[in-house]
Amino acid sequence: MRWFRQKEQLLLVSTEPPFRKPEWAEGRLMGHEGLPYRVTRWVERRPVLLERGGSVQQWEVWGRRVSDRELRDELNDAAERMLAEE
Who has the most CB within 10 Å: 4, 17, 30, 56? Predict the structure, then answer.
């Protein structure tokens, strides 16, 4: 089962470019289908043609499942940063 957690998975397709979605930046944690994932990469797709003319660019957001230990470490680090700010 451990090999499955390391495998990348397509998390979502977005019309927003990476610089407009810092919460989905590479290395950040995000929830997908109720599970924690770490964003590993963005892939630019071909523009999609719109019915009334024009086109829109799309990007794929890929990630891998985060283990319970990684999640716990991430939460501990965030808590320490919050306490250090006070």
Answer: 30
Q: Which two tokens stand for residue 46?
A: 């071909």
The DSSP secondary structure of 1-18, one letter per residue, reads -HHHHHSEEEEEEESS-G
Q: What are the Cα distances from residue 73, in Å, to 4, 22, 79?
A: 20, 21, 10
SS3 at position 28: coil
Question: Terminal CA-to-CA distance of the chain, rounded, Å?
Answer: 41
Residue-wise pLDDT for 10-59, tens only, equals 999 999 999 999 999 999 999 999 999 999 999 999 999 999 999 999 99
Contact 62, 8 (CB under 8 A): yes
